[in-house]
């Protein structure tokens, strides 16, 4: 079971790494978000930063097989899924710059990884109970 928890922790780490390379102005994300208001812009960034921090905490919780590790990981997997889906659907964040094909491909991969993470830790939870 410990090997499974290590793999789950690596999946979370992989998900948070995929999120961090999408930083605006970075190598992949080149859209212009200057039209977002300060509160909206910083609120969304605070949410993404918090998601990243909680992801690292989930990595640790999985490694030590904490009793809430599965639940925390399921929640962050759903949040990752929501973040990518609302962006792919063009709901938020809105930008006058079109999403590039590499960014779209990476977001589709990230969405798939979020689904896989959720299913994997859910299966661990069912096996472990």
TrEMBL record:
Domain of life: Bacteria
Family annotation (InterPro entries): DUF8051
Pfam families noted in UniProt: DUF8051 (PF26225)
UniProt entry tagged with the keyword Membrane: yes
Transmembrane parts of this sequence: 6-27, 39-63, 69-92, 104-127
Keywords: Membrane, Transmembrane, Transmembrane helix
Signal peptide stretch: none
The protein's name: DUF8051 domain-containing protein
Native source species: Paenibacillus rhizoplanae
